[in-house]
Amino acid sequence: MTSGPAHGIFVSKMKADGSIRSFVALDPGQMVRIGLERAIRKMAGTGAHVTWVPGRNLHCSLVFLGNITRDELQKLCDGLDACVACIPRFTLEVSRVGTFGRPGHPRVVWAGLEQHSRLAELYNSAFQAAGMLDITLDRRPFRGHITLGRVRGAHNLDALQKCLNGMRDQSFGSMVVEQVQVYRSVLSSTGAEYTLEHSASLCMG
Question: pLDDT value at position 135?
């Protein structure tokens, strides 16, 4: 992810129709990122057909907004500031690896987040802020995780599964949750590029 404008300032690269592809997320921090990158390199060594997430793009998604206007982005960030300001900062353990999808047919490889009451509170607050916009939101139950890769085919899945089994209980360290980030996502032939648009701070607690 690349750094964007300072807190509260918006200088966004828009699509031709004036919309900005955006999402609300948590940054795992440098130490956790290093551990996850090491795990990704190990899993990539299996030769499985997986598109692995670049280390700079690793994050925990809270709410995907899709394409919104600049005014909606400003409204979202103002609402997010207000909604999370009363939530105390906290620490989350990042551990375990697993997959989403049917047995034998994984779709997503993920690293797990500790089930913390404040993470659920933060998700609800982010969803509340996003709910102020006239957009359709994904209302599936929230399952805190960091996506590591997306499975594209069946090649070498057995080797990948064996590797995953060896990391079931692995710890990647702790992430200190002090802010919630809003990112802009620009899709290209080489993958997604994320740029920080705004950071909403939690209270000192």
Answer: 87
Helix (H) or strand (E) segment spanning residue 43: helix 30-44
Consecutive 10-residue runs of the chain (205 residues): their mean pLDDT? 43 57 97 97 97 96 94 95 96 96 92 95 95 87 95 95 93 97 90 93 89
- The CA distances from residue 13 to 85, 186, 192, in Å, are 28, 9, 14
Interatomic CA distance for residues 190 and 192, integer angstroms: 7
Find out whether 59 and 26 touch, Cβ atoms under 8 Å: yes
Is the Cβ–Cβ distance between 40 and 62 less than 8 Å? no
For residues 202 and 84, the answer to whether their CB atoms sit within 8 Å is yes
Backbone angles phi, psi at 42, to 5 degrees: -65, -45
> 0.85 exceeded by the pTM?
yes
Instruction: Single out the residue of 172, 179, 100, 101 nearest to residue 143, CA to CA.
Output: 100
Read off φ and ψ for residue 3, nearest 5 degrees: -75, 145
**Burial (0-12, 13-18, 19+ Cβ within 10 Å), 67:** middle
Backbone angles phi, psi at 27, to 5 degrees: -85, 130
Q: Which domains does the chain have, with CATH numbers?
A: 20-201 (3.90.1140.10)
